[in-house]
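Worked example 2:
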Amino acid sequence: MRVVHIKNPEQRDACLARLCAEAYGQDAGLTPLATFAGTLGVLVKQEAARVLALVDDQSRPVALALLVLDEIGSSMTVMLLADLDGESVTRPSERLVAELALKAPLRVDATGPEQEARFREAGITRWLDGKAGVRIGLGPKHPATSVAELPRALTFDEASVVQSFKRDRALFDDYKARFVRGLESFPATL
C-alpha cells in the first residue's frame, strides 16, 4: 500500500471525476459536475487542491481523496473521500486518511457520529466542536489547538459554478465532456 499524489493532468481529471461521482452518487444532479468544475477551475489553478489515491500492491487505486489547502497554507482539509475497492483492501478510505494524517497537517469535518467514528478509527484523535454540529478532527501534525486557530479551507461557490453553466453553454459542455472522458478513462493503475 502507498499513497500517490496524482499530478498528471489527465489522470488527475479522471480521478477527480471518479471521486466526485463516488462521493455524491448518481442522484446528485449537477453537484458532482459543479464540484469537478469548481475544483479544477478555481482550486487546482490556484494550486490549492490535491487529488490523492491509496493504491494496493499492484498499483490499483482503492481509495481517493481531495485535499484542499487552508487560506494561509498551513494545513489541508479532506473535502471528498471515497472507497473504490473494499474487497481487496479493508476500509481503504480510512487507511488513506490514516496515512495522510501521519504525513500532513490534516483536518477532517464529520457531520455525524458515524463519520466521526470512521475518522477516529483512522487515527484522528483530536476533536473540536464546529458550527452547526460539525465535529472537526485534527491529525497529529495539525498545529491548531482550538477552533479560533483554524484557518478556513479554500473553497469555491458551487452556486456560482452552476450559474456560470446556465449562462455559458460552451463552458458547461466543456466540463461535462471532461467529466465523462475522465470517468471513461479512469486508470486501472497509478
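The helical segments are 9-24, 31-44, 92-103, 113-121, 158-167, 169-184. The two ends are 12 Å apart (CA to CA).
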